[in-house]
Design goal:
By secondary structure, the chain is of the alpha/beta class. It has ten helices and six strands.
């Protein structure tokens, strides 16, 4: 749900230009049909993984990027962080099958202005796009209870004073280490990871060593299992 329903889809004349990123071509096709059927929305670029989404955003400068969470190379959350840094004018929506509180808050931290479930995309996605272009947050109805519960808990614990914050970050690793972890788990070599992240192979090896130490793991296999449990890659 958006916080208001004022008319008007976007920042200027012409339809809102959208980048659509999902690693399943059939999903992209279905979502594109929904969006292109609206006169004020148009898909101008597609990507099959998070890294390609960042590349296309830099090349095509879309008004809005719609990102799946579970994608190769970079997840949607990782891509959202990159877009916030490299393409701050591009708004971001997360489109996902995961009705997951942790992913929801991570999406907000990554700079996304909305979180839409694929199961109700035909109902909610168009409204979410328009809300994003009005600089209004869009959240699916189930997250309202999560937000209210979180605010009440924080108010109770703090005595009711102070501002409203997101729950404290509980990740044991940094965003860069998370990127390296995902690529290691996907089977990329240190040189390939270095090329993708524009860092040196020596830096990749240092991140890998830090990951093993921080997480108490021994090898690539255990890193891969951890990445699956964390939702960075699909089994």
């Amino acid at each position: 749900m958006s916080l208001s329903r004022s008319p008007g889809p976007g920042p200027g004349p012409g339809p809102v230009r959208i980048l659509l990123a999902d690693d399943h071509a059939l999903v992209r096709r279905g979502v594109r049909l929904i969006l292109d059927s609206e006169p004020d929305l148009t898909v101008v670029a597609e990507a099959g993984d998070g890294a390609e989404a960042v590349e296309r955003a830099r090349a095509d400068a879309p008004d809005l990027a719609i990102l799946d969470i579970a994608m190769p190379r970079l997840t949607g959350l990782q891509a959202a962080r990159e877009l916030a840094r490299l393409c701050p004018e591009t708004r971001v929506l997360i489109l996902t099958m995961y009705d997951n509180e942790q992913y929801f808050f991570e999406a907000l931290r990554a700079g996304a202005c909305g979180y839409v479930l694929k199961s109700v995309a035909d109902r909610d996605l168009v409204e979410a796009c328009r809300a994003a272009m009005r600089d209004e947050p869009f959240i699916y109805p189930g997250t309202v209870n999560t937000l209210i519960r979180n605010l009440l808990d924080r108010a109770k614990n703090s005595g009711g004073g102070g501002g409203v914050d997101l729950p404290p970050r509980t990740k044991a690793i940094t965003d860069r280490e998370e990127e390296v972890l995902k690529l290691v788990a996907e089977g990329h070599t240190s040189q390939q990871i270095a090329d993708l992240l524009v860092i040196s192979p020596k830096t990749v090896e240092r991140h890998r060593a830090n990951l093993l130490q921080k997480l108490g793991l021994r090898d690539r296999l255990e890193l891969t299992r951890y990445a699956i449990r964390s939702g960075l890659i699909e089994p």
